[in-house]
Amino acid sequence: MARESTRRVTIQHVADEAEVSIATVSRVVNGDAKVSPVLAERVREVAGRLGYRPFAAARDLASGHYRSIGVVVPDLGNPYFYDVIKATSVGASAEGYRLVISDSGDDPAVELSIARERLSQVDGLLLLSSRIDADGLATLARATTPVTLVNRVDPESGLPAVAVDNFSAMLGLCHHLSVLGHRRVVYLAGSANAWQNRERWRAIEQARVMGLEATRIDVAATIESGVAHAEAALETKPTAIICCNDLIAVGLLTRLRELGVRVPEDVSVTGFDDIDFAQHTVPTLTTAVSPRAELGDRSWRVLRALLAGEQPPAVPLLLATVVHRGSTGPARD
Protein backbone atom coordinates (compact mmCIF):
# COMPACT_ATOMS: atom_id res chain seq x y z
CA MET A 1 0.00 0.00 0.00
CA ALA A 2 1.38 3.43 -0.95
CA ARG A 3 2.16 5.72 1.95
CA GLU A 4 1.39 9.42 2.12
CA SER A 5 4.14 11.49 0.48
CA THR A 6 4.47 13.60 3.61
CA ARG A 7 5.47 10.65 5.81
CA ARG A 8 9.15 10.35 6.62
CA VAL A 9 9.97 7.29 4.53
CA THR A 10 12.98 5.18 5.45
CA ILE A 11 15.02 2.57 3.62
CA GLN A 12 13.15 -0.06 5.67
CA HIS A 13 9.82 1.10 4.23
CA VAL A 14 11.19 0.73 0.70
CA ALA A 15 12.60 -2.71 1.46
CA ASP A 16 9.30 -3.91 2.99
CA GLU A 17 7.20 -2.56 0.12
CA ALA A 18 9.51 -3.99 -2.56
CA GLU A 19 9.87 -7.25 -0.63
CA VAL A 20 13.66 -7.12 -0.69
CA SER A 21 16.38 -6.67 1.90
CA ILE A 22 17.71 -3.33 3.09
CA ALA A 23 21.04 -4.32 1.54
CA THR A 24 19.39 -4.69 -1.86
CA VAL A 25 17.82 -1.24 -1.64
CA SER A 26 21.19 0.18 -0.64
CA ARG A 27 22.86 -1.47 -3.64
CA VAL A 28 20.26 -0.01 -5.99
CA VAL A 29 20.71 3.42 -4.43
CA ASN A 30 24.43 3.21 -5.02
CA GLY A 31 24.09 1.95 -8.58
CA ASP A 32 25.47 -1.55 -8.01
CA ALA A 33 25.39 -3.28 -11.40
CA LYS A 34 25.17 -6.70 -9.76
CA VAL A 35 21.47 -6.14 -8.96
CA SER A 36 19.28 -7.56 -11.73
CA PRO A 37 17.61 -4.92 -13.93
CA VAL A 38 14.13 -6.24 -13.10
CA LEU A 39 14.74 -6.09 -9.36
CA ALA A 40 16.40 -2.68 -9.57
CA GLU A 41 13.45 -1.31 -11.52
CA ARG A 42 11.04 -2.61 -8.88
CA VAL A 43 13.01 -0.91 -6.10
CA ARG A 44 13.13 2.36 -8.07
CA GLU A 45 9.40 2.26 -8.68
CA VAL A 46 8.62 1.69 -5.00
CA ALA A 47 11.10 4.35 -3.86
CA GLY A 48 9.63 6.89 -6.26
CA ARG A 49 6.06 6.07 -5.24
CA LEU A 50 6.84 6.35 -1.53
CA GLY A 51 8.93 9.50 -1.97
CA TYR A 52 12.06 7.95 -0.45
CA ARG A 53 14.66 10.73 -0.53
CA PRO A 54 17.18 10.51 2.33
CA PHE A 55 20.14 11.83 0.38
CA ALA A 56 21.18 12.83 -3.12
CA ALA A 57 21.76 9.31 -4.44
CA ALA A 58 18.17 8.35 -3.68
CA ARG A 59 17.00 10.91 -6.19
CA ASP A 60 18.28 8.65 -8.91
CA LEU A 61 15.89 5.87 -7.99
CA ALA A 62 12.68 6.99 -9.73
CA SER A 63 13.84 8.89 -12.79
CA GLY A 64 17.47 9.88 -12.54
CA HIS A 65 18.58 13.10 -10.83
CA TYR A 66 15.59 15.31 -10.20
CA ARG A 67 17.51 18.59 -10.28
CA SER A 68 14.03 20.14 -10.21
CA ILE A 69 12.33 22.74 -8.04
CA GLY A 70 8.55 22.83 -7.85
CA VAL A 71 6.92 26.24 -7.93
CA VAL A 72 3.20 26.72 -7.26
CA VAL A 73 1.55 30.06 -7.99
CA PRO A 74 -2.08 31.19 -7.67
CA ASP A 75 -2.24 32.87 -11.09
CA LEU A 76 0.31 32.62 -13.89
CA GLY A 77 -1.54 35.42 -15.67
CA ASN A 78 -0.30 37.90 -13.09
CA PRO A 79 3.03 39.43 -14.21
CA TYR A 80 4.01 39.85 -10.56
CA PHE A 81 4.56 36.11 -10.25
CA TYR A 82 6.43 35.94 -13.54
CA ASP A 83 8.95 38.47 -12.24
CA VAL A 84 9.49 36.52 -9.00
CA ILE A 85 9.84 33.22 -10.87
CA LYS A 86 12.29 34.74 -13.34
CA ALA A 87 14.60 35.82 -10.53
CA THR A 88 14.31 32.41 -8.87
CA SER A 89 15.11 30.70 -12.16
CA VAL A 90 18.35 32.62 -12.55
CA GLY A 91 19.73 31.28 -9.28
CA ALA A 92 18.34 27.78 -9.74
CA SER A 93 19.60 27.46 -13.31
CA ALA A 94 23.09 28.56 -12.29
CA GLU A 95 23.26 25.48 -10.07
CA GLY A 96 21.74 23.06 -12.55
CA TYR A 97 18.13 23.06 -11.36
CA ARG A 98 15.06 23.57 -13.49
CA LEU A 99 11.70 24.91 -12.33
CA VAL A 100 8.49 22.90 -12.57
CA ILE A 101 5.74 25.52 -12.42
CA SER A 102 2.08 24.89 -11.59
CA ASP A 103 -0.94 27.22 -11.45
CA SER A 104 -3.44 26.55 -8.65
CA GLY A 105 -6.12 28.85 -10.07
CA ASP A 106 -6.22 30.70 -6.74
CA ASP A 107 -7.81 27.61 -5.14
CA PRO A 108 -6.32 26.54 -1.77
CA ALA A 109 -7.46 22.92 -2.16
CA VAL A 110 -5.94 22.65 -5.63
CA GLU A 111 -2.72 24.24 -4.38
CA LEU A 112 -2.41 21.74 -1.54
CA SER A 113 -3.10 18.84 -3.90
CA ILE A 114 -0.41 20.03 -6.31
CA ALA A 115 2.06 20.59 -3.49
CA ARG A 116 1.53 17.12 -2.03
CA GLU A 117 1.98 15.54 -5.45
CA ARG A 118 5.14 17.51 -6.17
CA LEU A 119 6.81 16.48 -2.90
CA SER A 120 7.92 13.15 -4.37
CA GLN A 121 8.81 14.59 -7.78
CA VAL A 122 11.16 17.49 -7.06
CA ASP A 123 14.09 18.37 -4.82
CA GLY A 124 12.40 21.35 -3.19
CA LEU A 125 9.16 23.31 -3.33
CA LEU A 126 8.41 27.05 -3.44
CA LEU A 127 4.87 28.21 -2.67
CA LEU A 128 4.28 31.73 -4.01
CA SER A 129 1.65 33.76 -2.12
CA SER A 130 0.27 30.50 -0.79
CA ARG A 131 -3.46 30.25 -0.04
CA ILE A 132 -3.15 26.92 1.84
CA ASP A 133 -4.68 26.94 5.32
CA ALA A 134 -2.77 26.34 8.56
CA ASP A 135 -3.49 22.60 8.68
CA GLY A 136 -2.30 22.15 5.12
CA LEU A 137 0.93 24.04 5.77
CA ALA A 138 1.53 21.98 8.91
CA THR A 139 1.24 18.84 6.78
CA LEU A 140 3.76 20.15 4.25
CA ALA A 141 6.12 21.17 7.05
CA ARG A 142 6.41 17.51 8.06
CA ALA A 143 7.60 16.49 4.60
CA THR A 144 11.16 15.39 3.97
CA THR A 145 11.21 17.56 0.86
CA PRO A 146 12.20 21.16 1.72
CA VAL A 147 9.37 23.69 1.36
CA THR A 148 9.71 27.48 1.42
CA LEU A 149 6.97 30.10 1.55
CA VAL A 150 7.33 33.10 -0.75
CA ASN A 151 5.50 36.31 0.18
CA ARG A 152 3.76 34.63 3.08
CA VAL A 153 4.68 34.18 6.71
CA ASP A 154 3.28 31.35 8.84
CA PRO A 155 5.09 30.99 12.16
CA GLU A 156 2.86 28.13 13.33
CA SER A 157 4.00 25.78 10.57
CA GLY A 158 7.64 26.70 11.06
CA LEU A 159 8.17 26.78 7.30
CA PRO A 160 11.00 29.07 6.16
CA ALA A 161 9.64 32.21 4.53
CA VAL A 162 10.71 35.17 2.45
CA ALA A 163 8.14 37.94 2.27
CA VAL A 164 7.54 41.61 1.56
CA ASP A 165 6.46 43.98 4.32
CA ASN A 166 3.00 44.45 2.83
CA PHE A 167 1.66 46.13 5.97
CA SER A 168 4.19 48.97 6.02
CA ALA A 169 3.93 49.55 2.27
CA MET A 170 0.14 49.84 2.37
CA LEU A 171 0.38 52.11 5.39
CA GLY A 172 2.70 54.28 3.30
CA LEU A 173 0.11 54.51 0.53
CA CYS A 174 -2.55 55.44 3.08
CA HIS A 175 -0.30 58.14 4.50
CA HIS A 176 0.22 59.55 1.01
CA LEU A 177 -3.55 59.78 0.50
CA SER A 178 -4.08 61.26 3.94
CA VAL A 179 -1.57 64.03 3.25
CA LEU A 180 -3.49 64.82 0.06
CA GLY A 181 -6.63 65.32 2.15
CA HIS A 182 -8.44 62.07 1.41
CA ARG A 183 -10.83 60.73 4.02
CA ARG A 184 -13.35 58.48 2.24
CA VAL A 185 -11.68 55.57 0.45
CA VAL A 186 -12.74 52.27 -1.08
CA TYR A 187 -10.51 49.21 -0.97
CA LEU A 188 -10.84 46.70 -3.80
CA ALA A 189 -9.51 43.66 -1.96
CA GLY A 190 -8.17 40.47 -3.49
CA SER A 191 -8.37 36.92 -2.18
CA ALA A 192 -9.14 36.70 1.54
CA ASN A 193 -7.02 33.52 1.58
CA ALA A 194 -3.88 35.50 0.71
CA TRP A 195 -1.65 36.52 3.61
CA GLN A 196 -0.42 39.63 1.82
CA ASN A 197 -3.98 40.83 1.23
CA ARG A 198 -4.82 40.37 4.90
CA GLU A 199 -1.74 42.40 5.79
CA ARG A 200 -2.75 45.19 3.41
CA TRP A 201 -6.27 45.35 4.81
CA ARG A 202 -4.86 45.41 8.33
CA ALA A 203 -2.85 48.49 7.37
CA ILE A 204 -5.91 50.21 5.91
CA GLU A 205 -7.84 49.55 9.10
CA GLN A 206 -5.02 51.04 11.13
CA ALA A 207 -5.01 54.08 8.85
CA ARG A 208 -8.19 55.22 10.59
CA VAL A 209 -5.87 57.05 12.96
CA MET A 210 -4.92 59.17 9.92
CA GLY A 211 -8.57 59.99 9.35
CA LEU A 212 -9.19 57.47 6.55
CA GLU A 213 -12.54 55.67 6.57
CA ALA A 214 -12.48 52.67 4.25
CA THR A 215 -15.18 50.57 2.62
CA ARG A 216 -14.05 47.13 1.50
CA ILE A 217 -15.23 45.37 -1.66
CA ASP A 218 -13.94 41.82 -2.25
CA VAL A 219 -12.97 41.25 -5.87
CA ALA A 220 -10.76 38.93 -7.92
CA ALA A 221 -7.20 40.15 -8.45
CA THR A 222 -7.58 40.67 -12.21
CA ILE A 223 -7.91 43.45 -14.76
CA GLU A 224 -11.42 42.26 -15.60
CA SER A 225 -12.43 42.58 -11.97
CA GLY A 226 -11.23 46.18 -11.87
CA VAL A 227 -13.44 46.94 -14.85
CA ALA A 228 -16.43 45.10 -13.41
CA HIS A 229 -16.38 46.77 -9.99
CA ALA A 230 -15.76 50.40 -10.97
CA GLU A 231 -19.40 51.43 -10.60
CA ALA A 232 -19.73 49.68 -7.25
CA ALA A 233 -16.67 51.51 -5.98
CA LEU A 234 -18.04 54.88 -7.11
CA GLU A 235 -21.37 54.30 -5.37
CA THR A 236 -19.70 54.86 -2.01
CA LYS A 237 -18.69 58.39 -3.09
CA PRO A 238 -14.99 57.95 -2.34
CA THR A 239 -12.28 60.49 -3.01
CA ALA A 240 -9.77 57.65 -3.50
CA ILE A 241 -9.88 53.99 -4.53
CA ILE A 242 -7.14 51.70 -3.23
CA CYS A 243 -6.59 48.54 -5.26
CA CYS A 244 -4.93 45.50 -3.70
CA ASN A 245 -2.79 45.07 -6.82
CA ASP A 246 -1.92 46.84 -10.06
CA LEU A 247 -3.98 44.54 -12.27
CA ILE A 248 -7.20 45.64 -10.58
CA ALA A 249 -6.06 49.26 -10.85
CA VAL A 250 -5.38 48.92 -14.60
CA GLY A 251 -8.91 47.64 -15.19
CA LEU A 252 -10.38 50.29 -12.90
CA LEU A 253 -8.61 53.13 -14.71
CA THR A 254 -9.87 51.80 -18.05
CA ARG A 255 -13.48 51.74 -16.88
CA LEU A 256 -13.30 55.10 -15.13
CA ARG A 257 -12.10 56.67 -18.36
CA GLU A 258 -15.04 55.10 -20.21
CA LEU A 259 -17.41 56.51 -17.59
CA GLY A 260 -15.96 60.00 -17.95
CA VAL A 261 -14.56 60.00 -14.42
CA ARG A 262 -11.35 62.03 -14.27
CA VAL A 263 -8.33 60.63 -12.42
CA PRO A 264 -7.09 62.15 -10.17
CA GLU A 265 -9.36 65.24 -10.37
CA ASP A 266 -12.56 63.35 -9.49
CA VAL A 267 -11.05 60.34 -7.71
CA SER A 268 -7.52 59.13 -6.95
CA VAL A 269 -6.43 55.55 -7.63
CA THR A 270 -3.58 53.49 -6.18
CA GLY A 271 -2.28 50.01 -6.92
CA PHE A 272 0.28 47.67 -5.39
CA ASP A 273 3.34 45.83 -6.84
CA ASP A 274 4.51 48.22 -9.61
CA ILE A 275 4.27 45.75 -12.47
CA ASP A 276 5.43 47.12 -15.83
CA PHE A 277 1.90 48.20 -16.78
CA ALA A 278 1.86 50.69 -13.89
CA GLN A 279 4.21 53.08 -15.64
CA HIS A 280 2.18 53.09 -18.85
CA THR A 281 -1.40 53.61 -17.68
CA VAL A 282 -3.24 56.87 -18.27
CA PRO A 283 -2.54 58.50 -15.92
CA THR A 284 0.50 56.66 -14.63
CA LEU A 285 -0.24 54.65 -11.50
CA THR A 286 0.73 55.53 -7.94
CA THR A 287 1.65 52.22 -6.32
CA ALA A 288 3.93 50.32 -3.95
CA VAL A 289 7.10 48.96 -5.53
CA SER A 290 7.37 45.33 -4.46
CA PRO A 291 10.98 44.04 -4.75
CA ARG A 292 10.10 41.07 -6.93
CA ALA A 293 13.61 40.25 -8.13
CA GLU A 294 14.97 40.31 -4.59
CA LEU A 295 12.05 38.19 -3.41
CA GLY A 296 12.79 35.54 -6.03
CA ASP A 297 16.53 35.58 -5.45
CA ARG A 298 16.31 35.34 -1.67
CA SER A 299 13.71 32.61 -1.86
CA TRP A 300 16.08 30.52 -3.92
CA ARG A 301 18.92 31.15 -1.45
CA VAL A 302 16.78 29.93 1.45
CA LEU A 303 15.67 26.82 -0.42
CA ARG A 304 19.22 26.13 -1.60
CA ALA A 305 20.43 26.12 1.99
CA LEU A 306 17.73 23.61 2.90
CA LEU A 307 18.73 21.40 -0.03
CA ALA A 308 22.29 21.41 1.28
CA GLY A 309 21.11 20.41 4.75
CA GLU A 310 22.06 23.80 6.17
CA GLN A 311 20.20 26.21 8.40
CA PRO A 312 18.56 28.71 6.03
CA PRO A 313 19.52 32.36 6.45
CA ALA A 314 17.03 34.48 8.37
CA VAL A 315 15.47 36.97 5.96
CA PRO A 316 13.76 40.06 7.38
CA LEU A 317 10.64 41.35 5.66
CA LEU A 318 11.66 43.02 2.41
CA LEU A 319 10.80 46.69 2.08
CA ALA A 320 8.39 47.94 -0.57
CA THR A 321 8.57 51.65 -1.37
CA VAL A 322 5.74 53.94 -2.45
CA VAL A 323 6.07 55.71 -5.80
CA HIS A 324 3.90 58.76 -6.44
CA ARG A 325 2.63 59.11 -10.00
CA GLY A 326 -0.20 60.76 -11.86
CA SER A 327 -3.16 58.76 -10.54
CA THR A 328 -3.25 60.49 -7.14
CA GLY A 329 -3.91 64.12 -6.32
CA PRO A 330 -5.61 66.34 -3.75
CA ALA A 331 -9.02 65.19 -2.57
CA ARG A 332 -11.90 67.01 -4.21
CA ASP A 333 -14.00 69.27 -1.99
Automatic annotation (TrEMBL):
<keyword id="KW-0805">Transcription regulation</keyword>
<dbReference type="InterPro" id="IPR046335">
    <property type="entry name" value="LacI/GalR-like_sensor"/>
</dbReference>
<keyword id="KW-0804">Transcription</keyword>
<protein>
    <submittedName>
        <fullName>LacI family transcriptional regulator</fullName>
    </submittedName>
</protein>
<dbReference type="GO" id="GO:0003700">
    <property type="term" value="F:DNA-binding transcription factor activity"/>
</dbReference>
<dbReference type="InterPro" id="IPR028082">
    <property type="entry name" value="Peripla_BP_I"/>
</dbReference>
<dbReference type="InterPro" id="IPR010982">
    <property type="entry name" value="Lambda_DNA-bd_dom_sf"/>
</dbReference>
<dbReference type="Pfam" id="PF00356">
    <property type="entry name" value="LacI"/>
</dbReference>
<feature type="domain" description="HTH lacI-type">
    <location>
        <begin position="9"/>
        <end position="63"/>
    </location>
</feature>
<keyword id="KW-0238">DNA-binding</keyword>
<dbReference type="Pfam" id="PF13377">
    <property type="entry name" value="Peripla_BP_3"/>
</dbReference>
<dbReference type="InterPro" id="IPR000843">
    <property type="entry name" value="HTH_LacI"/>
</dbReference>
<dbReference type="GO" id="GO:0000976">
    <property type="term" value="F:transcription cis-regulatory region binding"/>
</dbReference>
